[in-house]
């Protein structure tokens, strides 16, 4: 399994600012429109994008646990990571052009991995990043709504949207790392069906209740390298998953595996509430 950087929900809001609720123009594997996803964050290290994240309040960004692990499988320090909010084109941002006033770098003062997460595991693959200064929200920089674990209906067989600046092909010799934010429509699977599909292909992966799968039986559309930590949004554009792991990218019968955000709402509330 490589890191990539029965389902019910209601809305959990962690900020006094209304969270972003949009009906996006979902077309699988296309470039997102500028400012279409105002909750997206690019996590950068040494000036380069390596993971995604999601704004959930003026002080907190949610990402994958493995995104905060270094090459020695230890947690990085806050000063080693920067975030960029309001970003569309990485090249434009690095060259200082084209993004307008909304592309803004943020620094972090705290990194909070889930207490049961270990850099050598795919379980509990979730982390919170606390910014040094509150994010100033604009029309194009907004927090996401978060799907909680007490709710209204199953997500199985529904379609979600995954987005990021990751690679456009599993074989990096054939694809490129995206410059402009991209989005794709993926189908949310039943966990048992997902596990059965992996095992049918000789992959003995256990899909736990804190995970969910999304993709297609015939592959072709999926998250990939450097999409890790980015959001999977429901059709109402509520955050329901974090890009976590998988085998390859967009392989038939091997949908992407995401951290199921709803299972971690109590932990998110506790962390945020303890640091006010």
Instruction: Return the structural class.
Output: mainly beta
Could you describe the largest sheet, including whether it forms a barrel?
A: 6 strands, antiparallel, barrel
Shape: globular
CATH architecture of the largest domain: Beta Barrel
The count of β-strands is 16
Using brief descriptors, characterize the structure shown.
single chain; about 280 residues; mainly beta; Thrombin, subunit H; 2 domains; six-stranded antiparallel β-barrel; six-stranded antiparallel barrel; 3 helices; 16 strands; about 30% strand; globular; Blast:Trypsin-4; Peptidase_S1_PA; TRYPSIN_HIS; serine-type endopeptidase activity
Summarize it.
This protein is mainly beta and 276 residues long.
What does this entry look like structurally?
The chain has 276 residues and is mostly beta strands. Strand 14 (231-233) and strand 15 form a beta hairpin. It is built from three helices and 16 strands. The chain folds into two domains: 38-143 and 264-274, Beta Barrel (Thrombin, subunit H); 145-262, Beta Barrel (Thrombin, subunit H), CATH 2.40.10. It has helices at 90-95, 191-200, 265-274; strands at residues 2-3, 11-12, 30-31, 40-45, 48-55, 60-63, 82-85, 104-113, 127-131, 145-147, 159-164, 182-188, 211-215, 231-233, 238-246, 256-260.
């Amino acid at each position: 399994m490589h890191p990539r950087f029965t389902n019910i929900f209601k809305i959990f809001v962690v900020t006094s600012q209304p969270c972003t609720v949009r009906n996006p123009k979902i077309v699988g594997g296309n470039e997102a429109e500028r400012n279409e996803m105002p909750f997206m964050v690019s996590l950068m290290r040494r000036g380069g994008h390596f993971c995604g994240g999601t704004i959930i309040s003026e002080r907190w960004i949610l990402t994958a646990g493995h995104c905060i692990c270094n090459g020695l499988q230890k947690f990085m320090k806050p000063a080693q990571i920067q975030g960029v909010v309001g970003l569309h084109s990485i090249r434009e941002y690095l060259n200082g052009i084209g993004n307008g006033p909304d592309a803004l770098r943020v620094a972090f003062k705290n990194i909070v991995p889930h207490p049961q997460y270990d850099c050598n595991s795919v379980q509990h693959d979730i982390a919170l990043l606390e910014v040094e200064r509150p994010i100033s929200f604009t029309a194009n920089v907004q927090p996401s709504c978060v799907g909680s674990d007490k709710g209204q209906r199953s997500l199985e067989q529904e379609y979600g949207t995954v987005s990021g600046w990751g690679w456009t092909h599993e074989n990096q010799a054939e694809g490129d790392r995206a410059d402009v934010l991209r989005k794709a429509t993926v189908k949310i699977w039943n966990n048992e069906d997902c596990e059965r599909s992996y095992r049918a292909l000789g992959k003995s992966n256990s899909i736990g209740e804190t995970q969910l799968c999304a993709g297609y039986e015939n592959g072709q559309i999926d998250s990939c390298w450097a999409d890790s930590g980015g959001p999977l949004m429901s059709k109402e554009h509520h955050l329901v998953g974090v890009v976590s792991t998988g085998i390859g990218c967009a392989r038939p019968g091997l949908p992407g595996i995401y951290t199921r955000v709803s299972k971690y709402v109590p932990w998110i509330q506790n962390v945020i509430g303890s640091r006010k």
